TrEMBL record:
It catalyses: L-seryl-[protein] + ATP = O-phospho-L-seryl-[protein] + ADP + H(+); L-threonyl-[protein] + ATP = O-phospho-L-threonyl-[protein] + ADP + H(+). ATP binds at residue 742. GO terms for biological process: post-embryonic development. Its EC number is 2.7.11.1. The keyword Membrane applies. This is non-specific serine/threonine protein kinase. Gene3D superfamilies: Phosphorylase Kinase, domain 1, Ribonuclease Inhibitor, Transferase(Phosphotransferase) domain 1. InterPro entries: Kinase-like_dom_sf (IPR011009), Leu-rich_rpt (IPR001611), Leu-rich_rpt_typical-subtyp (IPR003591), LRR_dom_sf (IPR032675), LRR_R13L4/SHOC2-like (IPR055414), Plant_receptor-like_S/T_kinase (IPR051809), Prot_kinase_dom (IPR000719), Protein_kinase_ATP_BS (IPR017441). It is a single-pass membrane protein. It is found in: Cell membrane. It comes from Juglans regia (English walnut). Residues 714-993 form the Protein kinase domain. One of its GO terms (cellular component) is plasma membrane. GO terms for molecular function: ATP binding; protein serine/threonine kinase activity.
Length: 999
């Protein structure tokens, strides 16, 4: 900033926000004694705030220093300025001195997104003019909330969410009777009973106490809050019944009590007094009785979740009167239908908006009616798993043209699969497993171009697999096992080069295996066991380098085991039991370092069983009942013996047989080691030059047994989620540390390679916004990463949760966190790191809702180039850049494209592969077209209900979506780089904050 400005002694407003000034804040600003507004937001100022800025003769009323790199204590001189009304110091690394209480005129205090620790200064509660106090997110305030909070009687907005406060709420809080907005969500340590005095806050419109440890009964005095629009008590420990008074708050738009221990029944007249209710979430409780028919009076209801309770009786017909209903979830209850025909579908025939219906795991005990085809044209998801449904699948089901997911598995359906399913052009997942369906597989199914998962296993389907199956180009999982299919496997199946899992086991398929099976380069699981396949095993199978599980057991295959099987470098399971295979077991199998299970029993194999590599661990069970196998004693086969030639000849034979191969092997090993060291040294030198790297020697030593104890034997109760290569569990180490333990499923495609990549990258990088590795546990049959535990889950969970909502600042902050992580990966090294799989589920959130990028299982090092090409595309459809999907080109610009898609999804709550999109309309195009109307038309509607300043929000969203489109340019060279993305997004955020303040 130019020093000449210091001569403008009468300057009242200094606004240099949203620029790129750096260095320390100039001390000469303190000479501007007439200055009333100092705005330096969204720059790169660093260091401490100079105390000379503030003196007793100053006229300052507003200070805006948010989103810089300031640290240290806020200078005490600032609190001698009695004229100050607004202080915004958000998103720095500052601490609060006790003198804050001297600011008797202060009305607005923004301290969110800092690194504050300890208790709130008691002097804060002397600011009796304070109306707006925001301490949310990324802070670490601890201890009990002081009773002095009751002194702030002018407060209208109080946000203490995402801190570490504990204990009971002080009763004095309920003396702040001007409060309109109270958010204490996700402190996780607030305990005790909720005081009946909550009913004193009669001006409240927003009340959020979710994700804490409140207990006891919900006080009926909440019914006094007659201005309340939204309240959330979800994910606590409340017990008892729901107070009847809550159903008398006519202003309510939505409420959640999900995930408590509430019991009893819902009042029969609950629908009579809530005319504005749009959503209610009561899932995961212990509620019982019948679902009240009066719910039909909620004429504005959009979402209803009663899942995971013990409701019984009939599903009310009157639910069909909810003309705006979009989501209905009744799964895991004990409700049923009035007649043997599932008439619930006729209830909703006049509903134009219903998109999700989940009735799974209820004893419906009926048949599907033809009226199922009359559901909304917006209908997207139908789950009737395990409902004891009988009869046929009606042909009118083909009318549900926007359906993306349908599960009718585990029922008692009979008859044939209707060909009309082929009209469901948006379908991505179809599961009809575990029924009694018969007849052929309709060829019409093979024209569902978006179908990614097809499960027809466990039926009585017959005849052949359709030749046209090759049209399912999006297919990733195919399961036709346990049917009565006959004839040959169509050669067209092997042209599905992107498929990951194929299971055709337990049928009557015959004929030889096609050599074109080798085209399926990304295949991870292939199960063709228990059929009547014949002929030789094609050598081309050896090219399936991603194959983890291969079973050809119980067929009529003959000939030798291909030597090319030595190329199955990812193989964990190889089952060739019960064929007519002959010859020797190839020595090449000794090189399969990940092979854990081998069965070649009941064949006609001869010769010596290999002894190296994985064969060290195999038992006699793997080699039973063959013609003439020999080997070590523990395998229960004869010892191998040689013929006895003459002495001289014998010596020559021994030299040729042992000395020469050994010499050759020695030369080969030395050559490989030298080359490997040279290449690996180059790679590691680029990784290890990072000053923040964490070498393996510093990792905690954690054994497999300790991980078992930490997770209670990898109990399902500790399961956090499942990913591409395994499962993640929450664990508690002996010292009380919470960790996330990523256990790899070694039977999955590329799991071992993913483990190696993730260990190497995470072991050498450290950044605030990258998930931190604590240790690894690796042995021959178990591999796990021990990672920093992220208690708030992932971004996908928050975006699509029915009980939580991220506001504008949450979303902006998280996306800035992700951008900082990617900037570090791209620019923090001499060797750029490309993540390759940015998506909401890979953005984890810590206690303070800080975003951390995770899952480096398919990340790439660019070495000396700016890009590389790979033949196997592993990224997630919808997020990967066009050049990655079509040509396999990996570059930092590809990550920027993924970031742009992530940015769009975060603010629209629409997935790039949402079924609303087609070849004519994509998420990107939807955003582009929205600029000619209003960006508010396409954003997440939850944002609209949580924001008051729509002008500021629309300006912010327009800039953010414009940036996202710049990230997602079709050509890589047209995309903005991540450094500029981060700078622009910071400016967007700070302008939004400023617009809100001035508005």
């Amino acid at each position: 900033m130019p020093n000449e400005l210091s001569h403008l002694y009468h300057l009242e407003l200094l606004h240099f926000g949203y620029n790129e000034f750096s260095g320390e804040i100039p001390s000469w600003i303190g000479l501007l004694t007439k200055l009333q507004h100092l705005i330096l937001v969204s720059n790169n100022f660093e260091g401490t705030i100079p105390s000379s800025l503030f003196n007793s003769t100053s006229s300052l009323q507003e200070i805006g220093l948010e989103d810089n790199q300031l640290w240290g204590s806020i200078p005490s001189s600032i609190f001698k300025m009695s004229t100050l009304k607004v202080i915004s110091l958000a998103k720095n690394k500052l601490s609060v001195p006790p003198e804050v209480g001297n600011l008797t005129m202060l009305t607005d205090l923004y301290l969110d997104n800092n690194n504050f620790e300890g208790s709130l200064p008691s002097s804060l509660f002397k600011c009796k003019q304070l109306q707006y106090l925001d301490l949310e997110s990324n802070n670490n305030f601890k201890g009990k909330l002081s009773p002095e909070v009751g002194n702030l009687t002018m407060l209208t907005y109080l946000n203490l969410g995402y801190n570490n406060f504990e204990g009971s709420l002080p009763s004095s809080l309920f003396k702040c009777k001007q409060l309109q907005y109270l958010d204490l969500e996700s402190n996780n340590n607030f305990t005790g009973k909720l005081s009946p005095e909550i009913g004193n806050l009669t001006k409240l419109t927003f009340l959020n106490l979710g994700l804490n440890h409140f207990e006891g009964a919900i006080p009926s005095e909440i019914g006094n809050l007659q201005n309340l629009k939204i309240f959330n008590l979800g994910m606590n420990n409340f017990v008892g019944t729901i107070p009847l008074d809550i159903f008398n708050i006519s202003t309510l738009h939505g409420f959640s009590m999900v995930g408590n221990h509430l019991s009893g029944t819902l009042p029969s007249n609950m629908g009579h007094f809530l005319p504005n209710l749009e959503w209610t979430f009561l899932g995961m409780n212990e509620l019982s009785g019948m679902i009240p028919a009066s719910i039909s009076n909620f004429s504005q209801l959009v979402s209803l979740d009663l899942s995971g309770n013990s409701f019984s009786g009939l599903i009310p017909k009157t639910l069909g009167n909810l003309r705006l209903l979009q989501h209905l979830n009744l799964e895991f209850n004990n409700v049923t239908i009035e007649s043997s025909e599932l008439s619930i579908f006729s209830y909703f025939s006049n509903n134009a908006y219903l998109s999700i219906l989940d009735l799974s795991r209820n004893p419906l005990n009926g048949v599907l009616p033809n009226s199922i085809g009359n559901l909304s044209t917006f209908f997207e998801r139908l789950d009737l798993t395990g409902c004891n449904i009988k009869g046929n699948i009606p042909i009118d089901i083909g009318n549900l043209s926007r359906l993306t997911y349908m599960s009718l598995r585990d029922n008692d359906l009979a008859g044939s699969i209707p060909s009309t399913i082929g009209r469901l052009s948006m379908l991505e997942q179809l599961s009809l497993s575990g029924n009694r369906l018969k007849g052929p597989i309709p060829t019409d199914i093979c024209y569902l171009g978006r179908l990614g998962e097809l499960f027809l296993d466990g039926n009585k389907l017959s005849r052949h697999i359709p030749e046209s199956i090759n049209n399912l180009t999006s297919l990733r999982s195919l399961n036709l096992a346990f049917n009565q299919l006959t004839s040959r496997i169509p050669s067209s199946l092997w042209t599905l080069t992107d498929i990951l899992r194929v299971d055709l086991s337990s049928n009557s398929l015959s004929g030889p295996l096609s050599i074109y099976i080798g085209n399926m380069k990304v295949l991870t699981e292939l199960n063709l066991s228990r059929n009547q396949l014949s002929g030789h095993i094609p050598e081309t199978i050896g090219g399936l380098i991603s194959l983890v599980n291969l079973s050809l057991a119980a067929n009529q295959l003959e000939g030798s085991i291909p030597i090319s099987f030595g190329g199955l470098v990812s193989l964990v399971v190889l089952d060739l039991l019960g064929n007519s295979l002959s010859g020797e077991i190839p020595k090449s199998l000794e090189g399969l370092r990940y092979l854990k299970y081998l069965n070649v029993s009941y064949n006609k194999l001869r010769g010596e069983i290999p002894t190296q590599g994985p064969f060290v661990n195999f038992s006699a069970e793997s080699f039973r009942s063959n013609d003439a196998l020999c080997g070590v004693v523990r395998l229960n086969v004869p010892t191998c013996t040689e013929a006895s030639p003459g002495p001289k000849k014998a010596m020559g034979v021994r030299i040729l047989k042992y000395v020469l191969p050994a010499l050759g092997l020695t030369i080969l090993i030395v050559s490989v080691v030298l080359v490997s060291r040279k290449l690996h040294g180059k790679k590691n030198s680029k990784l290890s030059n990072n000053k923040d790297s964490m070498p393996l020697s510093t990792w905690r030593r954690i054994s497999h047994q300790q991980l078992l104890q930490a997770t209670e034997g990898f109990s399902a109760n500790n399961l956090l989620g499942e990913g591409s290569f395994g499962s993640v569990y929450k664990g508690t180490l002996l010292d009380g540390t919470y960790v996330a333990i990523k256990v790899l499923n070694l039977e999955l495609e590329g799991a071992f390679k993913s483990f190696d990549i993730e260990c190497e990258i995470l072991g050498h990088i450290r950044h605030r916004n990258l998930v931190k590795i604590i240790s690894v546990c690796s042995n021959i049959d178990f591999k796990a990463l021990v990672l920093e535990y992220m208690p708030k889950g992932n971004l996908e969970m928050w975006l699509y949760s029915n009980t939580h909502c991220l506001n504008m600042l949450h979303r902006l902050n998280i996306m800035i966190d992700v951008a900082m992580a990617i900037e570090y990966l791209h620019l923090g090294y001499s060797t750029p790191i490309v993540h390759c799989d940015l998506k909401p589920s890979n953005v984890l959130l810590d206690e303070d809702m800080v975003g951390h990028v995770a899952d480096f299982g398919i990340a790439k090092l660019l070495s000396d180039g700016t890009s590389l090409t790979q033949t196997m595309t592993m990224a997630t459809i919808g997020y990967m850049a066009p050049e990655y999907g079509s040509e396999g080109i990996v570059s930092t610009r590809g990550d920027v494209y993924s970031y742009g898609m992530l940015l769009m999804e975060t603010f629209t709550r629409k997935k790039p592969i949402d079924d609303m999109f087609s070849s004519e309309m994509s998420l990107k195009r939807l955003i582009e077209e929205s600029f000619s109307l209003s960006i508010l038309e396409v954003i997440d509607s939850n944002l609209l209900s949580n924001e008051n300043d729509y002008v500021a929000m629309e300006t912010c969203l327009s800039a953010t979506m414009g940036l996202a489109l710049h990230c997602c340019a079709d050509l890589p060279e047209q995309r903005i780089d991540i450094k500029n993305v981060l700078a622009k997004l910071n400016k967007i955020k700070l302008k939004y904050l400023h617009d809100q303040q001035s508005g």
